[in-house]
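Listing S7. Sequence submitted for prediction.
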Amino acid sequence: MPSTPDLGRVTMSLLPDADDGNSTLEIAALYSLLAFVAVLPVSIAASQVLLTITLGCWIALLVTQRERPTAPPFFGALLGYATLTMVSVLFSLDRGISIVDSKEVLLFLVVPVVFRLARGPRAQTVASLIVTIGAATAVFGVVQYGILEYDNLGQRPSGSMGHYMTYSGLLTLVIALAGARALFDRRERIWSLLVMPALLAALAVTLTRGYMIGAVAAIGVLCILRDFRLVVVAPMVAALFVVVAPPQITARLYSSFDMADPTVRDRFAMGRSGIRIIGDHPLTGVGPDMVKEVYPDYRDPGAVQDENPHLHNVPLQIAAERGLPALGAWLVFLAMVVRDLYRRLRSEANPALAAAGLAAVVGMLTGGLFEYNFGDSEFLMLFLVLMTLPAAAAYHSTVDPSVGSHPRKST
């Protein structure tokens, strides 16, 4: 019977010998990164503490080894988006609220940190850890549904997360990674196939329609990328799911197309409200976290809820909060990510991580039509990790004797 990956043994084989201060610091940095990734689907507080520690180790490595910060090309567009976010803070209807909310741009540092610390074979170790921890949280979610009676819209499985939306979003990203490894990586295929039923079942019992559709879209893209003929399997799998799934899950899916459903009507009403907000504040938006403050003034007559914290749609929320230029920068970021991932998918010997990144983008965009997932810290951090791992895995460096292990070039 296949067993879980021996992450401890694999990690030890990737560590440098601790014969000097730099090697010891490298070991500490790698372990802090692995701990950060491990707790991402478990605790937002612990993940942010560990991210802070990892950032400290990363900075210390840059200083002691006289390195320059490096990152994949798409990080430049992400910095542009961060800059335009801060511009929107300056013109916010309430700068105090917006400056606190805009601290999320600091999470973008996940990209250069992962790019530096998860290079080469370490990227695969990080990916194995994500799948394994994700599978454990999926089992917990199924237990919540089947034993603890988290089985209705008022109380849905959320794993150890504070909200079922965050939990289902994280599951979608893990499904993208596990699916890619099952289709593109023979060494990781068996374990990925073993955990996939738990991941899919956990996502289904959250009753989160947007991410269920997002996961299907992500898996569909993986099938197209692997072999277009695999697409014919999708309708059969969908039909099987409808037959065996509990009635409440299939009814929840059918409600996505029911215009009498109050949540569906409210989504459309929020969209109309968002368009009016953008029309009044096209360049800098109303400011980060200010949509909920102005929403009552723009509330559509067809809206169900009197108030909403956000517009439940990523492009609309970004444009309403930060302006159309910020939305443009975000779209450029995604375009650069997709271009980089597709190039790596076609040119590298092990394309699994690149395929996982592309599937994660599709899952994020599909789910992002119904939820503001790019503003969810836990989701955003894991998403950025998955976007960066392919570039980190492909990184090559040469040693300059004058500065020890200073990296000289990357692919």
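Caption to Listing S7: primary sequence and predicted structure tokens for the chain studied. Confidence is low (pLDDT under 50) at residues 17-21, 397-411. Residues 44 and 378 are 6 Å apart (CA to CA).
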